[in-house]
Amino acid sequence: MVEFEEIINTRRSIREYADKEVNDDDILKIIKAGMQAPGSRLGAEPWEFVVIKNKETLAKLGEIKPRVTNAPAAIVLVANIERAFYKTVWQQDMGAAAENMLLEAVNLGLGGLWNGVAPEEERMTKIGKIIGIDDIAETKPYCIITIGYPAEGWENKFMDKFDEERIHYEKY
Ligand SMILES: Cc1cc2nc3c(=O)[nH]c(=O)nc-3n(C[C@H](O)[C@H](O)[C@H](O)COP(=O)(O)O)c2cc1C
């Protein structure tokens, strides 16, 4: 376990991974972290998760999102709008889950990458077809989180992103 502040400050987008499998317990922990995220309505969150470890499927997803190809595992975050109470804010719900998952990956000594899919409909449709979604009207591929042990030179590390100029007190 890593200290919370260290997790927040050292998380980086990890785009290349060591040739080492990620165990299923860790993948489950990452998904559980996603489900702990705030959602627009408690009990009516849209999130669902498709775990992909099959190399052929990873390669197919990689034709649309290249960084997926060489990842040992990927989780496609899917918004099921039928589950949602507030049906227009699914992208916010899913974003909260995605960030929780990336932080849990760091906590477990892993690295992750947010591979953007939504809102581009063509991309959502193509990703959907690969994972068994024929129609994205109600079941929307949101992003793909790749997970793995960082390759050499791709470790999570601190980068200072603080910018005081963006903080406003009392009025903009
Ligand atoms: C909505 C969203 C979509 C993203 N899509 C991609 C992507 O498709 N490919 C990629 O390499 N990185 C993607 N990223 C990661 C960003 O490029 C990355 O977070 C940013 O460069 C800052 O670097 P850091 O994550 O190391 O702080 C995405 C991030 C977000 C939040």
Structure description:
The structure is a single chain. The protein has a single domain, classed as NADH Oxidase, CATH 3.40.109. It is built from five helices and four strands. It has helices spanning 4-10, 24-35, 55-62, 90-107, 121-131, and strands at 47-52, 73-80, 111-116, 139-148. Bound molecules: flavin mononucleotide. Flavin mononucleotide binds next to strand 3.
Please describe the topology of this protein.
Elements (H helix, E strand, L loop, with lengths): L3 H7 L13 H12 L11 E6 L2 H8 L10 E8 L9 H18 L3 E6 L4 H11 L7 E10 L24
Antiparallel strand pairs: 1-2, 2-4, 3-4
Helix pairs in contact: 1-4, 2-4
Bound molecules: flavin mononucleotide (FMN).
Flavin mononucleotide (FMN) binds next to β3.
Name the features.
single chain, 172 residues, alpha+beta, NADH Oxidase, four-stranded antiparallel sheet, binds flavin mononucleotide
